[in-house]
Amino acid sequence: MMPGTPGIMIPLPNNLIIFFFEYIRHFGKTVMKIPVFRISLIATASFLPISLILLVVFLVIYSWPAIEYNQFHFLWTNDWNLGNLYGNPVEVDGHQIMPGAKYGVWFLVVGTIVSSVLAMLMAMPVAVGAAYFLSEGIRKSWSGPLSLFVDLLAAIPSVVYGLWGYALLVPLFGNTIFPFLTDIFSFIPFLNGSPGSGYGLLTSAFVLAVMIIPLISATLRESIQMIEPALKEAGLSLGLTRPEVFWHIILPKLKKVLIGVGILALGRALGETMAVLMVSGNALNYLPGNIYAPISTMAAFIASQLDSALQDPTNMAVEALSEIALVLLLITILVNISARLILWMEKVR
Amino acid sequence: MAASKTMEKQLSTKALQPKVFKMSLWRKLMTVFASVAVFASFAFLAIMFLSIIGDVLIHAWPALNIKLLTEITNGIGGGLKNAIEGSIVISVGSILLAAPIGISAGIYLSEHGHGMAGQALRFLSDVLVGVPSIVLGYVGYITMVIYLGWQFSVAAGIITLTIMLLPYIARSTELAISNIPLAVREAGYGLGAGEGRIVFKILLPGAAPAIMTGLFYSVALSMGETAPLLYTAGWSNYMWSGNLTKEPIGYLTYVIWTFINEPFAESHMLAFAAAFLITAGVLALILLGRWYMVRAQKRMGAYR
Predict the structure, then answer these.
(1) Can you tell me the ipTM of this complex?
(2) CB-based contact, A45 to chain B, within 8 Å
């Protein structure tokens, strides 16, 4: 036997410790059959689920006073007011709050949902069209570079989208396009009325739409390429044109994928912060009367209001914000779970 | 006999005068309309992309000078030295923390992820992708900044971003490793290699280009994030002195959204310069990752 192998290693005092550990390792590996690698792999990997669970747990614990005080009917009242921050805290229902403080956020619920849904309605047709163009409409050698270009659009940081919206879209929309739209659609409710300043619902929805189109389009493009060519050839041999094959054969097959990806993109739009923060007008306690009116969303509100909520000595405002964060988290988790279930059934990653 | 002859005659006349297949006008119109609409939707995306890049570039152009790299920000102007340093520190720190955990999770998903535990992990990582970044930032704020008393600090920002990056790295690693054929693993086991040796000597080197592309993408993602950092990393006008806690740090994306709200032209130029730097950095990282992947595939036929 070679010297140094664990079997004949002499336990001298200077290498007694090394021998001890080597022996434990050897014993664990051979006699007790402990899969050392597997255990360390699982231990490291489990940080991922643990972090998600801790996220929810911490948020619930921190916002517990606000949940007790507001319950969940604060979601459909419309009066966010930090109260008189220079007064003395008063006790209501066993909780210290500032005098006159109210934490209703119905305007945020409306702003979040309407802007995201509007964005999805605008994004869906364009994304389907772009996905078709990239997968079927052009020759294969071009589709690679052009797809890369759409992927790059998805990678632009959201704050740069916000900057673009702020610097280019808001003046353009506010001065030219919104007045024009109110003029020609003056007979349609929600499209008529005051064109506003450019900050608002439609601008936010437009920016959100541009952000989510690449996401929808990328997944859809891959799904289109996964469809068996025999189906397309069958359609073509029946005399259908290429767009007709797409419309009558491919799209019906991809119906569920389309729904799943749409919901996934909706979840992304619901949670988008910076871009919306910079173009939405940050309305407070105000329900939009038409699609040009300023709004605010839950995510943008949390980002913009934390500074002023910190002025509240009772800390209830910060806890109320954390309750909003919790509601937003639960909504996006629900949306994501439903989208993933649909996509899993269709075997799309 | 006569009947068959008439039939033959009918057949032959039919064969001589085939019915010309004609598309209805409606179908022709719809086909043309569809082609135009499909091209228009791609053109829309192209115009949006070019207008974003163009807008940022045009506004940032006058501000792009050496001052950006040599001076720190002050209230309304100055350079971006501290913000550039901060962005790099935060991205590198978060990728160093996220890569081992994410890659481990990816290995677990691809090698043992077929049971209930694997499905649950995959599902939770998909859910974690969907968690809004501002919620992550808020939780980072209440846990690390307030409860642990780290104040606005580098560590809080890095850990928050790490949680955001984990699922992306895990899924890209899983995809990369599961594309390696089973026979390669069997060859390794057949030579007597253990599980750890298979992963470190066979799977990870084989999947390295694809994993690296995922890591590049994650760095790009972490560079572009603002919302998770607003209330964890804070903001500082000075260079980072090396403390992990109790010292805020500046970063480029913060410059974009605060300096654009200042009423001064100099601040606006700085905001656009920061946007240009961050966009260029993000796009360059992604292109670099793609290029690396393509090159590795050409050179040694790496697994996709």
Answers:
(1) 0.87
(2) yes
